[in-house]
Amino acid sequence: VQLQASGGGLVQPGGSLRLSCAASGIIFSRNSMAWYRQAPGKQRERVALITTGGGINYADSLRGRFTISRDNAKNTVYLQMNSLKPEDTAVYYCNTWTPNMDYWGQGTQVTVSS
């Protein structure tokens, strides 16, 4: 299983970014997908999750600014991030899982700074 995240970068406060995560080695449509992030010195936290049926869950503090979506035809999950704040600075990881294994992408750095 490979999860290839992309789309990170440096953005000013108030700006937007869209992260992508391309998955291979799984039947994508049968897997729930999630985005996590980890800021320096902090624990990894889940940002958003999307199920196979399109059910979505967000971290309470991010609801309204971030949007997760998936394109099963492209085996890709997205994270649209708007109104970015300096505290959103972190490495963002995509994740999926089976009953026996967690799979992680390599992470993409998002830096929000003026």
Low-confidence stretches: none
Question: What is the chain-wise order of helices and strands?
Answer: EEEEEEEEEEE
Structural Rg: 13 Å
Q: What is the count of helical runs?
A: 0
In terms of DSSP E residues, the strand content is over 45%
Structural class: mainly beta
Helix content: under 10%
- Given the C-alpha coordinates, what overall shape results? globular
- Report how far apart the termini are: 37 Å
Work out the number of β strands: 11
Residue-averaged pLDDT: 95
Give short descriptive properties of this protein.
seven-stranded mixed sheet, mainly beta
What does this structure look like?
Helix content is 0%, strand content 52%. It has no helices and eleven strands. The strands form two sheets. Strands 2, 4, 5, 6, 9, 10 and 11 form a seven-stranded mixed sheet that branches. The protein has a four-stranded antiparallel sheet with strand order 1-3-8-7, with no helix packed on it. A hairpin with a 5-residue loop joins strand 5 (45-50) and strand 6 (56-58). The model has no long low-confidence stretch (mean pLDDT 95).
